[in-house]
From TrEMBL:
Biological process per Gene Ontology, one example term: proteolysis
Cross-referenced PANTHER family: ALPHA-ASPARTYL DIPEPTIDASE (PTHR20842:SF0), PROTEASE S51 ALPHA-ASPARTYL DIPEPTIDASE (PTHR20842)
Family: Belongs to the peptidase S51 family.
Recorded superkingdom: Bacteria
The protein, known as: Peptidase
InterPro entries, sorted: Class_I_gatase-like, Peptidase_S51
Keywords: Hydrolase, Protease, Serine protease
Listed GO MF terms: serine-type peptidase activity
Organism: Bifidobacterium castoris
SUPFAM superfamilies noted in UniProt: Class I glutamine amidotransferase-like (SSF52317)
Length: 239
């Protein structure tokens, strides 16, 4: 699984309940995450995972992120797809019935717009505060921050789709889920998005609260502490 280190950084919690009730696993890639979910979050066969795919739906590489769902089903997890564009009542029902929330990678701005439009932001905050673990991959890790404007060098800010009656107004908000005060910078050193990650870190050099992550790394946030762990995934290192 790789080396585990304690970064000794408390104070990562966002708005809401005490830190001790929050459990977050934030990563650049889903590759190698399942063993970490078992180890740190108690995931086992039959665990109901609310799988939010929307960030991946507008990116050409999104199919690879969504393949996590059938892979985990093959390993015994009860993966339930939560499409944020569906009826609000169904989105809420699915999220309330899950043991763990998983938000896959893709475009962070599109993801937050979908979360807001679905009314899922306060619901997810409440579930995480009550102890439901949150696992975020790439964009899913980015939106855990209080604000996602910093990720602009990596993610294109797509305009909303036009409706049948009129063009939709551009969403100017860059607020995130505010589950943690950390701002995850994924894909550090990666072949595909490493240059953008480097630019972001350069822009925020000297500022606190920015957490760079390689494609084979993850952050475990629990009990007011942060641990940096490696997934041990050789495939993730090639991305």
């Amino acid at each position: 699984m790789g080396r585990t280190a304690d970064d000794g950084m408390g104070g990562f919690g966002g708005a809401g309940a005490p830190h001790a009730r929050r459990r977050l696993l934030l990563a650049s890639s889903s590759m190698g995450l399942l063993p970490l979910m078992r180890r740190f979050l108690g995931v086992r066969r039959g665990t109901a995972v609310g799988f939010i795919p929307n960030a991946s739906l507008i990116e050409p590489y999104g199919f690879a992120s969504r393949m996590t769902a059938p892979w985990w089903r093959a390993h015994g997890l009860d993966v339930r797809i939560v499409d944020l564009t569906g009826p609000r009542a169904r989105v809420a029902h699915l999220l309330r019935g899950c043991d763990l929330i998983y938000v896959c990678g893709g475009n962070s701005f599109h993801l937050m717009r979908c979360l807001r439009d679905a009314g899922a932001v306060p619901l997810i905050r409440g579930l995480v505060a009550s102890g439901v673990p949150y696992v975020g991959e790439s964009a899913g890790a980015v939106v855990a921050a209080p604000d996602i404007g910093y990720i602009a060098p990596m993610d294109v800010r797509h305009d909303p789709a036009t409706t049948l009656h009129a063009p939709r107004k551009r969403d100017a908000s860059t607020s995130g889920l505010d589950l943690t005060r950390l701002h995850v910078v994924p894909h550090v050193g990666g072949r595909l998005l490493g240059a953008a990650a480097r630019d972001i870190l350069r822009m925020h050099a000297g500022e606190t609260g920015y957490a760079p992550l390689r494609n084979d790394e993850a952050l475990v946030l629990e009990d007011g502490r942060m641990r940096r762990v490696t997934t041990g995934s050789f495939a993730a290192r090639l991305l």
